[in-house]
């Protein structure tokens, strides 16, 4: 009888594991070099799976529930060990418990800058970090590629193992998505959702994991990209250019000093346009038109404008047409400023070949603020 008790004590009758750590991913159940009794009870709790491994091969997988271990419900193990149906002898194999609950708030980040190709900036180096949530969905693949034969594979070991792999998958997903670097640096939430669709299939296929959430918390870009983002924001904040010029004038008048000279450069241009408008009104009010306005001072800018306008009018059937240089002389600004106003759509003009021509009516409309 004592001999039978000794034999009985060498057999495992119940296999179960309770995890109180909250950070264990896989746990190899300790058998103390004992054999498992045929007909033993296997208890698998919620958020657990059990993977049997025998002779270096992955055998049967058990989901939550209470299982009686016999040849009927461990067919893969029976095949590996060469058992016949109804085999009753005890056996040995490795029993791995896996935690299938959702692990949240895991950090990832690029220790070194990663390169991405952008249409606007060429090759750009960026740094990024954030968090992700995951769960185990393929136990054999996870044990094979990540946990291995570790007795107690915990979350800190997982983070050390997976950090570089997650960054690698992130870099591949970023390249496939073809997302402009300006969007990467300003639209974190949308980027995380978009990249998740690319990252998840790759992680599942390679490591047996499902990424349920992938969040970008910060993306660092080179200084030139930061400047481009600031300029885009500034243009959006300026809005109406006329209101911005008025605001600048008011600020400069309040500030005074040398600083106001730089700040009022746009306002100075606007004042030049206004003075030119008044000059043209005075010219048009003369009894003889442009010729009469020029009679008082044949060397004035008004006289030059009148002469040119008269010449053009004679050849164009009464339509007054100016070149950008002539319009610049009338407005007392640089020709480049006139071209800029044309290209911005603020001053109406027609391009003939490579040259711009501006009608007097379009110039008057521009000066009236129309």
TrEMBL record:
Question: Tell me, what's a Pfam family for it?
Answer: Band_7_1
In this chain the SPFH domain maps to 27-236
Q: Keyword annotations for this protein?
A: DNA-binding
> Which Gene Ontology molecular-function terms are recorded?
DNA binding
Q: Report the domain of life of the source organism.
A: Bacteria
Does the UniProt entry include the keyword Transmembrane?
no
* Domain Helix-turn-helix: start-end pairs: 321-369
DNA-binding is among the record's keywords: yes
Cite the InterPro entries for this sequence: Band_7/SPFH_dom_sf, HTH_17, SinI_DNA-bd, SPFH_YdjI
What is the name of the protein in this document? Answer: DNA-binding protein
In its UniProt entry, the species of origin is given as: Comamonas serinivorans
For this protein's source organism, the top of the classification is: Bacteria, Pseudomonadati, Pseudomonadota, Betaproteobacteria, Burkholderiales
